[in-house]
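Forwarding these from the shared drive since the link keeps breaking.
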Amino acid sequence: MFFAVWMLYAADRLLDTRSLDSQSRSEPHLEARHYFHHRHRTAFVAGILLTSVALAPLLLRLTTEAVHLYLILGGLLFGYFILIHATRSAHRFPKEIAVGIFFAAATFIPTVARQPGLRLALLLPAILFATLCSLNCLFIYAWEHDSQHVSTSGEHPAHATTRFALRHLPFFAKAIAVTGTLLALLDHHAPWSIALATTLSAIFLMLLHHRRHRIPALTLRAAADLALLTPILLIPFLYR
């Protein structure tokens, strides 16, 4: 998962900056991380190739059912990449929401492939986790842009779904926290740890949002991803 996600992230950043090869001017929709990938694109391409080699033997350890599910997900993801990069139609798709759906699906596939009986029990936790991942991307977008004046026109306008979510970020974060808490307490069929970890992450994101003006931009963005590591806090309680 680590190798695959890193490859997709790096490839996405490199595709975002491909226009810089033929243009000396800066692109207003690009952030510091995009320019970093562009400056070191040779190293990133080499890293992607080496990671592909390292990933190949790990794929052999997956179950046949997991491989089938990943092939379906990979086909959808490839089609999404084509739509947003080859057709220059990124503004027509809610990228932040798509990231949450794809990442959550990839995370749950190994478990539901090994134990199909858990698919229904894990459905709500998976949806909650997907919403949290999308919220993570939306918070970062809001911090990097003026969420009160997100562009609705021009070359790279924000998607309508993104604009709506940005106006209600605290509400969505609170909704995830409340839903996760209720799921952990009342749903005895789903693992309580997943719901509780999701709740903690949502709370951390809200705290970061509240203190966003006091934290440097790069630190704030890194802390948003760090907020998703809450499952580590629950490990001691899972093996008692």
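-- next protein --
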Amino acid sequence: MNCPEVQHQLGLYLDQELPADLRPAFQEHLDQCSACRANLEAMKVTAGAVASLPEPRLPSELWNRIERQLDTNRIAGGIQPEDWFRIPPRVAASVILFIGLGLIGYTLSNGGASPASAATVDFSVLLDALPLDAEKAFRKFLMLYDAKESSPFEARRYAPGLTFELPEELPGGFRLRSVYLLRFGDGRGVAAAYVRDGDFLAAIYHPPVQQESFGTHKDYPCVVGQHHGHKVQVSEWSLIHLTDPTTCHCILSRLDEETELPAVLAAIVPHATTGHTHDAHH
């Protein structure tokens, strides 16, 4: 087992629900990896502290909000219960109460908008799961940011401050499969999924933020054609970031950076990024 696989299942291990056939490899990794052991200990401390809180009584409106959020499973088609981070019900209810009580008043009066501006966009949930299933990893990222399926027309109306293109077909034969509206704090974002003969490509557009978090993955400067940006490489997948004053354009693909990717970027990013503007929001 590697670190992302172990960290993804720490909740099951903590609840003693990890399948028996996985326990030997899981325990072997824990014995050898100080980082994963530290994460497990932190989870134990947090779970113990929260579990000692009084049994919460949750307002009905919060449950309604939770049910609405769970409805986003339709865009995640195929996500199984074991993919969710699992903690004991008492702990989960306490955490939901802690977060939810602060949101109820705001969401009732602000149409469901998030109460705070996003200082960081977290790509780690996407990057950690890439080697296993890229489309599933993309769906998890969408759920993290309250994605709702939409259309190119509605996406432009939803995020008029962003610069992006959503062509029906990209160079190389990728066809637009779906478009999503996202929330990054109080900022609006857009994402799109493209497919070509079983190959997958995703585009994510969000306002420039103070930082993009990649977890344990490294972010490096890159040049793709006439575009200057940054990228994170995970196995055969690359996540390219090109930032202009209004928009960070994030492209996830397995395309060759010399032959195929430059034309795709030219079709998706309205203006070539000729400087290292990505650093401006770090």
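Residues 58 and 97 are 6 Å apart (CA to CA). The two ends are 32 Å apart (CA to CA).

- D.
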